[in-house]
Amino acid sequence: FLTAPIVGRLMVKYDMRYLIAFGLVLFALGTYQMTWITKDYDFFELLVPQILRGVGMMMAMVPINTIALGTLAPERVKNASGLFNLTRNLGGAVGLAVINQVLNQRTDLHISRLHDNVTWGNATAVETLKMFTERMQGMGDAALMALKQLSQIVHRQAVVMSYGDTFFMLAVFYLGLSVLVLTLKKPSA
């Protein structure tokens, strides 16, 4: 939000395509930093990537709106604005659906891979299961409860890993978009 007035001033001095590309690169950088996410990330580890994504979004969105609507005759802006908003909302919905699908597929893949490693032959897994079982003695079926707890840990780790994969996919996508922006014709003043 604080970046918008700065971007407005930069748009007067620089080619808007370069501002859009720079914004998309910043967004990609902030997203790439999230590829190493763990369940232990705290506020400060999330702060810089969030700032980069926020500044990058403003650096891209303000010039995009100006290019899309700023060069039209005043009587055409109303209809064009509606079409622009429809397209943006439709693109957002499709993007969210793709992201959700990737998250689901990558979670399933990571669950499968982690289950392959959490076996009776894995000393760490056996020791963890033994520790959970001892901790739950006297609460019913301690062995079953320990297995459920270990399964929840595996599932949580798989979800976190799938978020990292999705952030990487988004970083590559936005980096590719930043290159494509440079192929646009230079907008008229």
Kindly estimate the percentage of residues that lie in beta strands according to DSSP.
under 5%
Count of DSSP-assigned helices: 6
Can you give the mean pLDDT?
Answer: 91
Order of helices and strands: HHHHHH
Rg calc: 23 Å
Q: Helical proportion? A: over 70%
Summarize the structure.
The protein is mainly alpha-helical. The chain has 6 helices and no strands.
Key phrases:
mainly alpha, 189 residues
Describe it.
The structure is a single chain. This protein has six helices and no strands. With 189 residues, it is mainly alpha-helical. 19% of the residues are buried. The model has no long low-confidence stretch (mean pLDDT 91). It is 80% helix and 0% strand. Helix 1 packs across helix 3 (43-69), helix 2 runs antiparallel to helix 6 (142-181) and helix 4 (74-117) runs antiparallel to helix 6. The two termini are 25 Å apart. It has helices at 4-13, 16-32, 43-69, 74-117, 123-135, 142-181.
Outline the fold blueprint:
Layout: H1 4-13, H2 16-32, H3 43-69, H4 74-117, H5 123-135, H6 142-181
Helix pairs in contact: 1-3, 2-3, 2-6, 4-6, 5-6
